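thought: fold this chain, then report.
action: predict
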Amino acid sequence: MAENKKPLLGFVGKLPCGTTPGNSGKTHCPLCMGLFKAPRLLPCLHTVCTTCLEQLEPFSVVDLRGGDSDTSSEGSIFQELKPRTLQPQIGILCPVCDAQVDLPMGGVKALTIDHLAMNDVMLESLRGEGQGLVCDLCSDREVEKRCQTCKANLCHFCCQAHRRQKKTTYHTMVDLKDLKGYSQVGKPILCPAHPAEELRLFCELCDRPVCRDCVVGEHREHPCDFTSNVIHKHGDSVRELLKGTQPRVQALEAALAQIKGTHSALQERVEAVAAEVRTFSEGYIKAIKEHRDKLLKQLEDIRVQKENSLQLQKAQLEQLLADMRTGVEFTERLLTSGSDLEILVTKGVVVERLAKLNKVEYSAHPGVNEKITFSPKEKAGLCHGYEVFGAINTKEVDPAKCVLRGEDIHRAREKQTASFTLLCKDAAGESMGRGGDNIQVAVVPKDKKDSPVKTMIHDNKDGTYYVSYTPKEPGVYTVLVCVKEQHVQGSPFTVTVRKRHRPHPGVFHCCTFCSSGGQKSARCACGGTMPGGYLGCGHGHKGHPGRPHWSCCGKFTEKSECTWAGGQSAPRGLLRTVAL
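observation:
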């Protein structure tokens, strides 16, 4: 097991001229506003000082979500469906996004350390942008040099002592000012179980970094390798997850832009309707003024209702977008600035967070529309004895009130067009009087549910819709009619499709003698005959039914389906007359 020293994702070296890694958001705690001290990475990928987290008031919750604890932005419309199990938890709220953070058994100190933040704090301190660094050994004096071998910051006194010791005589010492151009000067990450050993290996079975003592102890039989050898595989998996998250950020931004556009259209429409109401009200004096005020109040209530709905959806999408951005920015910075070990240490939290964010469902379309109209000619009743006109309409179709009409709504013929009419009504049961509603119709064979029949929907622009379809085969079909993705009255219903209507190949006549012009060879399905060698029927002769009938099948109804089985050795009663 040889260690590959070539880094994959992070590197320690000089930054290009003018490049400044990090800013106050990456080095300062959002709670105390000071430089990070023992920063901890929360599941929502926000970083806070350990002491600041310990000062937050914990609370006890019963987790019904089946194990996952982070609910930073999963609101009412983003809730994920999970098996409900009772799991008592002690948690805190993230001071940045108010996400619920369920603390592990070890409390705040058991959360993941943000080594990227620690490195940024040290770099900022080296540049003189933060407080002076103190010696790692004595913790009293300011740092003057850094041991590149031990990766320790030393004051002048401890530096001299470091050089006098036999084991550290030949360690490389660098002046602190010479490190200001470096991108990483962080401390080695030590094993929590063996503080004297550095984490250099990775256990594939346990999916976490380990040290040499761990490999010969607890992880003896586990597959382990140097971090530099396994970073390729784990780094690529994080990259793939990030690649799937980035498009969702763009989609959320587009959804928010659409929300803003709808809000603007709603404002414009409200103002336009308000102007119409005011213009119409000027023709009246006392009674009309009161009626106008009532209309404006109603319009304001509609605006408030619709705006509240838009604002709620906007807030939920903004929170989800903020969470997505936090995850993407942190992961990008981790992959570009983090060392191999830092990526592996943080990988679990990042993967869990990005996977959770990718599962969140959201609606990219506004929950309400700007459809508000004013009808000045509509009667509004009496106001102080005066008949007033004018009403504000926000009519919306109610699927439960919509009805289906048609004579043959439950019957159809194969390869023949069948149709019915859908009448849309509002919640009060009144006809919509206009078109433009979202109508969905599906005609599905009962035994071939994967082969629906093509349907045509014609909007009559008066609240009714003409629906037609042509079944290809006989059988039982299920018809589903939905308005706004909800079934209307009587939907779904079944339609029995019979075989295609068979026209009569013969003639509808009084007798064979008359219809054939006296031909003796002409026959009729009624079975009648005449003397003198006539094979067909005649008035008053044997077998004649005494009324008009079809020569092909003998039926008495002119507009009927023929039952003659042509092309077979039919009996005399099924023979047809040749029409002249």
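thought: worth noting. The longest strand covers residues 373-383.
final: tokens above.
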